[in-house]
Specification:
The protein is α+β, with helices and mostly antiparallel strands. It has helices at residues 30-49, 133-159, and strands at 4-5, 11-16, 52-63, 72-82, 86-96, 103-116, 128-129. 29% of the residues are buried.
Length: 161
């Protein structure tokens, strides 16, 4: 299987937030932002795997600033790491007030996806070709997150006994 470059699946999606997206305080619901994060990251994973994918986990989702009605939500997503059947996608979310030009870093998230074949079972995905120092750094950080996630699963299993 031939390796693929991160830039070949990287995307930016821009979505304007409306009243339908807001809570009673006039801010956009965190769940709306989460849905856009999951959808955007899923597109990246499908583009890399060339197959259906499912969200296996959201390793981190941190909110830094609110999103308001009328803001443009910028979602930038790219692959950080590829395993045998799984992939970690990083998403950076920014909110832009397009009237004032103010841009705020709103959220960041790391999601893991598993590629599925026609039978609904995991299938291998192409390796990730790491070309830049930034891609190598993001890959190393993703490997560390994966190790922590797997160690936590072991601790949880032991605690359930």
């Amino acid at each position: 299987m031939e390796a693929k470059r991160s830039q070949d699946s990287r995307i930016v999606i821009i979505q304007q937030m409306t009243q339908q997206d807001a809570n009673l305080a006039g801010n956009v619901h965190g769940g709306v932002v989460m849905k856009h994060i999951d959808s955007t990251a899923g597109i990246v994973a499908v583009r890399h795997a060339s197959s259906n994918v499912v969200t296996a986990s959201i390793d981190r989702l941190d909110f830094f600033s609110p999103v308001f009605i009328g803001d443009l939500l910028h979602l930038q997503a790219s692959l950080n790491m590829v395993g045998r059947t799984s992939m970690e996608v990083g998403v950076r979310v920014e909110a832009e007030n397009f009237l004032t030009g103010e841009v705020r870093h709103t959220a960041s998230a790391y999601l893991t996806f598993v590629a599925l074949g026609g039978d609904g079972r995991p299938v291998e995905v192409p390796p990730l070709l790491l070309e830049t120092g930034e891609e190598k750094r993001r890959h190393q950080e993703a490997v560390a997150r994966r190790e922590m996630r797997l160690a936590e699963k072991v601790r949880e299993r032991k605690a359930q006994r």
